[in-house]
Structure formats: C-alpha cells, structure tokens
C-alpha cells in the first residue's frame, strides 16, 4: 500500500493486536481496528497550505494525491448564537457535514475506505447501509473506476436508492429493516468471488476518514478545542474517529486536549447511549429499533464497544432522546442555523437534554455535528409540520 510516513498499520481497539492494512476487523478477536501512527510533531505553519482533509496529510494514512477524493471536507463550522443562549453556554457551532459531495459525513469515510480497497486491487466494493453510506460508496467507487454494491433495507429513502443507480452502483433492496440488509450482505459476501472488498460500517479506514472532522474543527477554532462535541450516532465509528482524531492532534502538539464527546441517539435505537449511561463496556443489541431517524436505526452498532471506550476516555457519555424532540430540534435548527434534518436534529435534541442534565458549563464551547444535509430528509420534516397542522 502507498501510505504516509506516519502510518504504521492497524491496531485492534479491543486486544491491541497489530495487523496489516488489508484486514477489516481484528483477525484475533474480531475487534474494531484503527490506524497506528508515529505521530509527528507539528505546528500549524508546517501543515500543507490547503483546505479539506489534504491539509492534515501528515496525520492521515494515505498521501492526498493517492486518495480517491471528490473534494469532501472543508465543511463550515457555523456559529449558532441563539442556541448558545438557550443552552446557557459560551458558544455553539454546527459542523455542517451536509455540505459534502453526496451531502453526508459518509463521504470522508468512503473516500479512505475506497482508497484502501483500490490499493488492494478490488473489483467491487460492497457495504450494507441505511442509505447514505450506499450512496457515498457508489459515488467514490465510480470515481475510482471500480464497481459497487449496496445492501439497503426497503425503508431506505428513494433519494439514496436513486443516486446509487445514477452513480452506476449495483444495489439490493432487502425487505425489512437494516439488520435484514446486513444479513443479506453477509450471505452474499460469503459466497462472493475474490475481488469483492467490504467497506462496511466499522471498517478501519472509515474511522480514519472520520478523524478529519476533528482536525478541521480544531483548525477552524485556531487550534483551540471545543469543550464538548455532540454527535448523532448510529454505528459509533465517527465517535471513535472524533476521539482519536482530537487525541492525534494533541499528540502532534497542534492542540492540548480532547473535548468531551457525547453520542446522541433516538431513544428507541440507543444501543451506545444506553450502555454509556449504564456504564456498560458493550452495547446490548436493540431488539426492535423503531425511530423516524432512518440513518440512526442501527440495532447492533458495528463499532459500539470501541465507541464506548472513546466516550469514556473523552469524559463524555451518551444521551437518548425521543423522536418528537428530535423533530422539534431539526425544525428549530433550521430556524437558528444551517439546515438540519432528523439526523442533525438528534444532536440539537441531545444537546438540550444534556444542558437540562447540567452537562455544560456557562463558558463551554459546544460543537454539534450535522452528519446529513437537512434537505435529504425534507419529507420527514414536512410530515412532522403537517401533523401539527402547519
Ligand atoms: Zn483484537
């Protein structure tokens, strides 16, 4: 593989085993793998004079000119003063990941996981997805000149299904919910010819891709770190990427600390948030997840145990919120700041619940991640308003 000077390989978050860059999970224990680096000493002036993830090349696995990219990242950190006043904190920013090429944070993850797959000589990248990941996978595979196949549940939004097709991707729509799509993916992958490479949730280079959210956030705050970050959480891989990204920035000397990271989830699909609140080491599978927030309807998170470790190390935790508060948060978010859908509204509802619990101090700077463009979820918000007679 063509990697940067800093990248040494992959290491297991569960047992510490070291492995090469072609593994998707730990060969010894099945744990989630993350990048292992000789982190260089850095100053802001030493970083490449560019924007987006390429600026952090010294802390990333692949040289930027060897990365499959569609210009992802460099998303704005938008101040939302009305929400800061409501929450009683010094400042609130929304890291608006809806501004990515396929309008989700998944673009950062698929950029690096598809890069890793193409370096392995893949013919076809495959993933189960609630929708946005399949769309991003199809887009980045097309860019790389390889095939893709997504496995999505029947409730996956039309927009995602349509754009998978438009990008030339193959797709299997599986009757049922997300876990049914995962079962179909596992079954086909087991029977597939060599040359199929999974880029599924929990993939180590998805986590590596998510780290650039942390790098950009600190950079935009002039290498100060926020006090807290609230992230709408499904599989937990971005929680791991955020914590390790902020830790890597601190290890390099660019920053001095890691913010408290909070995983916000719908209360009917809160495997990670519930385990964090109970102090459990592992999430319990949610038997019947049922939330209006389709991207977060994940019963068995692929990076759940690693995410719980990251939450604890950061000093943060989990917060579970009902769908009605999420929808209210989304609509209020659209009035106060950048467009948020139900997924982004989960961060706003989560921050409100955390503020009620006394999780924030008056001088805190709080960052809310909006993982998906609000306009991708317009139908949910419109039907919510109609249900209120608006
Ligand atoms: Zn392991």
TrEMBL record:
The keyword Amino-acid biosynthesis does not apply. SUPFAM superfamilies: Tryptophan synthase beta subunit-like PLP-dependent enzymes. It comes from the Archaea. GO terms for molecular function: L-serine ammonia-lyase activity; threonine deaminase activity. Residues 68-369 form the Tryptophan synthase beta chain-like PALP domain. GO terms for biological process: isoleucine biosynthetic process; L-serine catabolic process; L-threonine catabolic process. This is Threonine synthase.
